[in-house]
């Protein structure tokens, strides 16, 4: 068991929780469970397998393979990978939480080394970095490289491989992520917003043998749209008025200038009734008012989000009292 000298094991609470999201992975369930049980036999752990509304025999295979250390969560319908991971994280009891795919492309044998790195280095997140990736070049590797480049450069979170689901987190970080939609690919960015210390480790990667991949080149477009949302979260979540207000004031100011120019033109006797510039000026004024209004409403919504649920717009890492001299 990987344990720092100053950390004592807590009875009946696993040190490590492994969360795996599965959807139509019937052929992979049994070998996945065997790999996990073998890789984690010397580590106090629990395994949480989340079925995301499978339509094949995945549920039956999960029932057959589950043991005393395995918890199975069944969704009524497909909710997506982010929701499946969130459900597993919510249920996890371990001090550290591992997430991984259920398609056998991640290798469970990498988990002990990642856990050792997390504990000895006191890292909040250890992210897997796939070496010798066994995927198709056009449909998987090229879109992945493009997405990684965009996310790294636009968010400033400098990880090499955002597409690798094999990661280990301290539980207090994982449980504050609040995953929904398809934000699972942006987990490192969300963790960074929580103040997490992150590092990377090379991990093995295997070609898919059973089942069908849920990823493809068209998911790159989803990444771009989610990235826009992530950039807003990263920079303006607690101050939306700064984003919408600046745009609104800019648009409103341009509208005032355009219409002031047209007013001068009208006063000196020129016809402005049929000029496209008049429509542009009016449009800019209305857009400015709308953006400012949206900013005010979102700011009120943000305050309601925090205050109605007792949430705090900050995260405390530690509180302590200094020793008496």
Question: Can you give a write-up of this model?
Answer:
- By secondary structure, the protein is α/β, with parallel strands linked by helices.
- It folds into two domains: 16-236, Alpha-Beta Complex (Spore Coat Polysaccharide Biosynthesis Protein SpsA, Chain A), CATH 3.90.550; 240-308.
- The protein is 47% helix and 13% strand.
- The chain contains ten helices and seven strands.
- It has helices at residues 26-39, 58-65, 81-91, 111-120, 137-155, 171-174, 187-193, 219-236, 240-267, 276-308; strands spanning 16-22, 45-51, 70-74, 96-101, 125-130, 167-170, 198-203.
- A seven-stranded mixed β-sheet has the order 3-2-1-4-6-5-7, with helices on both faces.
- Helix 2 (58-65) links the parallel strand 2 (45-51) and strand 3.
- It is elongated.
- The relative contact order is 0.11.
Could you provide a short overview of the structure?
The protein is an alpha/beta fold and 325 residues long. The protein contains 10 helices and 7 strands.
């Amino acid at each position: 068991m990987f344990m720092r000298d100053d950390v004592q094991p807590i009875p009946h609470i696993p040190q490590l929780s492994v969360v795996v999201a599965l959807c139509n992975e019937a052929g992979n369930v049994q070998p996945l469970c065997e790999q996990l049980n073998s890789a984690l036999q010397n580590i106090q752990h629990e395994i949480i397998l989340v079925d995301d509304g499978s339509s094949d025999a995945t549920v039956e295979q999960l029932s057959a393979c589950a043991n005393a250390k395995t918890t199975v969560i069944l969704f009524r319908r497909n909710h997506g990978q982010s929701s499946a991971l969130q459900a597993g994280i919510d249920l996890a009891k371990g001090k550290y939480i591992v997430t991984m795919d259920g398609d056998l492309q991640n290798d469970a044998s990498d988990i002990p080394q990642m856990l050792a790195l997390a504990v000895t280095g006191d890292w909040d997140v250890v992210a897997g970095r796939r070496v010798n990736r066994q995927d198709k070049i056009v449909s998987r590797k090229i879109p992945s490289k493009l997405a990684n480049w965009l996310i790294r450069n636009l968010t400033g979170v400098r990880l090499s491989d955002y597409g690798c689901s094999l990661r280990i987190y301290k539980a207090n970080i994982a449980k504050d992520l609040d995953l929904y939609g398809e934000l699972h690919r942006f987990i490192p960015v969300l963790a960074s917003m929580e103040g997490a210390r992150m590092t990377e480790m090379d991990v093995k990667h295997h070609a898919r043998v059973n089942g069908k991949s849920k990823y493809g080149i068209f998911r790159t477009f989803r990444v771009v749209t989610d990235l826009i949302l992530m950039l807003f979260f990263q920079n303006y979540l607690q101050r939306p008025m700064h984003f919408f207000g600046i745009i609104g004031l800019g648009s409103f100011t341009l509208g005032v200038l355009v219409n002031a120019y047209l007013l001068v033109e009208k006063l000196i006797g020129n016809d402005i009734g049929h000029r496209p510039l008049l429509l542009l000026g009016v449009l800019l004024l209305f857009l400015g008012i709308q953006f400012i209004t949206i900013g005010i409403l979102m700011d009120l919504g943000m305050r309601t989000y925090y205050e109605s649920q007792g949430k705090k717009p900050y995260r405390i890492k530690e509180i302590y009292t200094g020793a008496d001299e």
